[in-house]
Each structure stands twice: as C-alpha cells, then as structure tokens.
Amino acid sequence: MHSSIxxxxxxxxxVKSQHLNPxxxxxxxxxxEGHNPGGSVxxxxxxxxxxxxxxxxxxxxxxxxIEPTSGNxxxxxxxxxxxxxxxxxxxxxxxxxxxxxxxMRAFGAKVTLTPADGGIIASRDxxxxxxxxxxxxxxxxxANDDNWKAHYKTTGPEIxxxxxxxxxxxxxxxGTTGTIMGTSTYLKEQNNNxxxxxxxxxxxxxxxxxxxxxxxxxxxxxxxxxxxxxxxxNETQAKNMxxxxxxxxxxxxxxxxxxxxxxxxxxxxxLKSGLVVAIICDRGDRYLSSDxxx
Length: 294
Fold this sequence. Notes:
This protein has helices at residues 42-56, 72-84, 98-106, 119-134, 145-153, 155-162, 178-190, 235-249, 255-268; strands at residues 14-16, 26-32, 64-68, 87-93, 110-114, 137-138, 169-173, 195-201, 229-233, 274-280. By secondary structure, it is an alpha/beta fold. Belongs to the cysteine synthase/cystathionine beta-synthase family.
C-alpha cells in the first residue's frame, strides 16, 4: 500500500534481453522506465525538480510555471504539479502526438502548441519570452541541476544495486541529457571503468525525445567528460528496432527506446564479455497516433 502515486516513481525493473542480443557472452538488460506512473523516465526528473524547488521556497502555489517539452517531461510535470496544486503551462511543437497533449490536459496543465517547423527550439524560445516578459518561472530542465541529480539519487543507484555491481556499460539516448549525466556520475563513482554510451540522432534524423543540439542550445547540464562514447542512430534504425522490441521482446516502447537498444546491440557485437544496461525511456501507447507501428 502506498500513500501517494509519487511513491511509485523509480525502482523500475531490469529485464534481460531474450532474443535481440546477438552476443551470448554479453548480458543485455532493459531498464524499464515506462513502469513509472507517468509512463516515462521523466517522472524522476520532474519530481525532483518540483519537490526541490518547493522545499527551497523557489516556487509556491501562486507561481506561474512554464516549461517547453517534447512530451514526456510535460506529462510528468503535469501529473506532479497537479498533486502539488501548482499552475503550469507546457509548450510543445504542434506535431506532437495527440496522446501526449491529451494526457497533459487530463492532469490539468495548460498546453500551448508552437509551429511544427520550429521543433522544440521554437517551444524553448516561446517559453523563454514569457519568462522574460510576463513574470513566469521556467523550470528549465536543460540547465536545472535537479534534473541530473534525480538520476544520481535514483537511476544510478538502482542499476548498481540490481546488477550487484556487475554493470559494465550503460547506454542512454540524450535529450536534456539529465538521465545520462546523473547516472554516469553515480556509476563512475562506484567503478570508473564502467563505460557510458550516449545515443544521438544521425545528421538529418528526427527521433522524438532525443536531439543533437546546436551549440547555442546545448543543455547547460551537459558535460561531455561524463560520456565515453557516442553512437549515432538514424530514423530507420530506431523505428525498426522499436518494432522489433515489441515483436521479439514484448517491450512496447517509443522510438527513442528503439534508438537506445539499437546502439546497445551494436555495442554488444564489439564486446568479449560484459553486462550492458540500456534505457527504455517510455511506453509505446503514446505513439499510437503516429506511424511508428504502421
């Protein structure tokens, strides 16, 4: 029994790959972040960002909050802000799947859609303008240390604990970079030989939830020294792997998870031994109105 839905954030399971892993000398595990109550890894960051800001007195129930999001962070913020009785406006591109928009509104958030051709960068520009001119406070997941610290407190320790310290490689797609920064920081403190592998879209590829940022928009929490290797993935590779995850592993996830697993499998092919953990960022049900599973 739990006193709040917030107690269900974190402690997500690790599930061993049964069919997709090409190397019998390597164990590949999926970190199932879709098991968070809001359906994604972003529950962790959203909770830590809002709870820490409330505890410090940076925000209260009269504060006008605003945040740009590609979807999952917005859902998590909407869910948690509703429980804390906070007012929040979420800004996202108008080509975001309707499941995401409807979920945020169901939790009580105001949702503003910016032009699709501007992508998340246009959403960031809109939110920053309201912050600068209309008295809003932007949570700024891209520069907020409470983002990566959520994973330092929870994701990293869970992986270390559940693998009994045997993890050798951690693979994660990079958007705000909070997941990989916080998890890397913790795992490297336990064993500096653990390899941290980031996943980015190849040039010209569009994969929801992950980005290759222009220099001027690079998240301020990003520290390249905490990553040992970057693997680039194109749309076809990510989409096909997302479909194969559902077909062969019964793991129903979004396209960024397909990118994560594609990179992890390519990594496994190069290893003589090891235990690889790959992030499964969210659930596939919030992509059903897209062509991801066509």
